[in-house]
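A quick aside before the break. I want you to see a complete sequence-to-structure record at least once, exactly as it would be stored in a machine-readable document. Don't worry about memorizing anything.
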Amino acid sequence: MTALETSKVAAFNIVEPFKLSEPTKAAIANGIAGMAASLCSQGVFVPIDVGFTEGFGVSVMTYSPSSALCMLGHGNDGNGSIPSQGTIVMVQGAGGISAAAAASLITTPLYTIKTRLQVHLIFSLNIAIETITI
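That is the input. The structure line, written in tokens, reads:
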């Protein structure tokens, strides 16, 4: 969350010079912040999970789009009104479902490719080791 909020402030400063509406600026800044936070997260979890050299690039390509889509909708409506609790729950629920569906459509094929590349790499290394030992 720290990476997300820090990135969000920097992204707002980046999009500030553009003549865009406040909701558009918020959506772009949140998308950029989501991708940056995902990159920071992958820098921590990939070395622990699969090894830094084997899966970092593919993991970033897999999870960054979903993080950007998820954070894209976390903006304000720009009119300053305070919505009711029920409206917030409905909007957050619908946004979460639609972001998850869109992210799944994008990332599932990338995840499959990542897994196949990792399995192919491991299989190739095993063949190389067997060839060297013979």
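Two observations worth writing down. The radius of gyration is 20 Å. Residues 85-133 form the longest helix (49 residues). We'll return to this after the break.
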